[in-house]
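Lecture notes, unit on protein representations.

Consider one protein chain, 183 amino acids long.
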Amino acid sequence: MAMNAARARKLADRIVQIVAEMLERRVKDPRLGFVTVTEARLTGDLREATVYYTVYGTAEEQADTAAALASATGLIRTEVGRQTGLRHTPSLTFVRDTLPEGAQHMEDLVARARAADAALAAAREGAQPAGDPDPYRPPAGGDGDEEPGAGPGSPGGEEDPGVGPGAAGDPGRAGGAAPDLGR
């Protein structure tokens, strides 16, 4: 029987609160570093919960914190079962969240891109174009007083006298309009 996803989300939020409170007040392991519980995810049947956490410190402190959490899992699971009132308390698995490292990596990439943009802007300062200042030259063979593309059949060119508004036999109606069918 699959549970409702909204219920699983609410229960996951409650598990985050319970675990954070337990780590702050009841777990007194000296190996436990500065831990922040970031998220909990439950399976659809509410039997297994994965709790994500972050630890600030060296790699050794992070390993010690992982060991402390592994040893306190039973105590924390008991408290989760007591406070949630579920028939079956989900088994807890603690996983170190890599979100801060990913965010730091993204910030480093953005900083490198900004530095590269600044170096490019400095190199561009005072630079001259490699080619002709006006790359668009008038067409060869023309006398220069006529715009390119101006002529019969082009926009802005000469029009055919039998077509368009005011043409003979069609006073006052635009050239592309449909004939009046008496409606």
